[in-house]
Amino acid sequence: MIIVDGDLRPYAWGRIDGLARWTSPTAGPQAELWYGSEGDGAGRGAAHPLLTKLLAAANPLSLQVHPSAELVARMWADDSSRSLLSDRVEKNEVLLALEPFTAFAGFRDAATSSRLLGDLGLTAASRLAAEGDHVALVRELVLLSEIAVAEAFRRLSDIIHSVLSAQDRAAIELVRAWYPRDRGVLVALCLDVHELSVGDALYVPAGVVHSYVNGLGVEVMTASDNVLRLGLTRKDVAVDAALEAMTDRRPTLVRGGSADGSFDYSVVGAPFVVTRLKGTGVEVRLSPGVAATALCVEGSAVVTSADVTETLTAGRAALMFADDDGAVVRADGLTVLARVS
After folding, report:
1. Is 220 in the same domain as 290?
2. Which residues contact 171 (CB under 8 A, 6 or more apart)?
3. Number of Cβ atoms within 10 Å of the Cβ of 178
4. CA-closest candidate to residue 88, choices 109, 74, 101
5. How far apart are CA 197 and CA 102, in angstroms?
6. Do 157 and 288 fall within a single domain?
7. CA 172, chain centre distance (Å)
8. For 42-59, b where at least 16 C-beta lie within 10 A, e where not — what string?
9. Which of 207, 238, 257 is the last residue of a domain?
10. Which end of the chain, N or C, is less surrounded by CB atoms within 10 Å?
């Protein structure tokens, strides 16, 4: 077991001093605090299998998809595509909301997408949406002519007003405000909008198109930073690779509530389980041979492994490895525990 502080990532989309509760203020954007990293042995000589982050989004993150293990292996073996990857791991992730959080993830129902695109004058895209051919649909949208995009954007506010809910309209208008000529806005229009309340979690497996819009949360993922971007970014996009990475997998929203105690965010097929420990003296025992990360978010936590006992304050985490002899995590406040399933 080792104790770590968060590694600050000051990406431009982060909130100004948005993570100062857990790190020093910088008077600049604070997007993520990383606990562990992709391919990082964290002083143990072998990589920890999980990466946990505190995330503070002030404006939308890129429209992106993570490649499956199979695609990662193919891309890694190809000199022309290896540069698009950061590591050789499939990335699956859970976002646990500490404050209300808005995200796009997974495609909305075909009829609504088809209607919206048809009303925008995008006939071919409307047909592809109706057929449920999401790869062809996204390809059609990202290759639209400037004239077609300008006309669709001119109509957008009026069209969505009569079709979408207020929360969906607000999310679309927000990404449009940040990226007023980006075709990714039209892809986002075809995605489900998820409004997470405090305590809710969203599981996004590899292959799901998504974009986090704004909010504060804890993100748990397999230890990977493989991101293939489709739009809503000033960074490089990798459209062909992202289209190849898309699958028919779906995100899963888990309503967690805010009650004290231990609550598991367990999703069938996910390679890890996230547990929220909230309250006084809330305790979880980990079996031997299970790698885990315990991040103290509020208050304190005591982690005991073998003959070692460590106290975590807010913003510190314990990384426990598979060769550790189990552990007991006791929280006084709020601690997020992630363990390999």
Report:
1. no
2. 102, 104, 188, 193, 213
3. 14
4. 74
5. 9
6. no
7. 18
8. beeeebbbbbbbbbbbbb
9. 257
10. C
Q: Total structural domains in the chain?
A: 2
The model's confidence at residue 74, banded by pLDDT at 50, 70 and 90, is: very high
Among the three residues 239, 257, 275, which one is the final residue of a domain in this structure?
A: 257
Residue 32 in any domain: the answer is no
Token digits of residue 130: 């109706």
Amino acid at 196: L
pLDDT in tens, 158-208: 999 999 999 999 999 999 999 999 999 999 999 999 999 999 999 999 999
Q: What is the CATH number of the domain that holds 299?
A: 2.60.120.10
- The dihedral through the CA atoms of 164, 168, 169, 172 has a sign that is negative
Can you list the positions of beta strands (E) in 62-143?
Answer: 63-65, 93-97, 101-107
Q: Which of 218, 174, 220 is nearest to 193 (CA)?
A: 174
**Structural domain boundaries, residue 319:** 261-340
Contact (Cβ atoms closer than 8 angstroms) between residue 166 and residue 193 = no
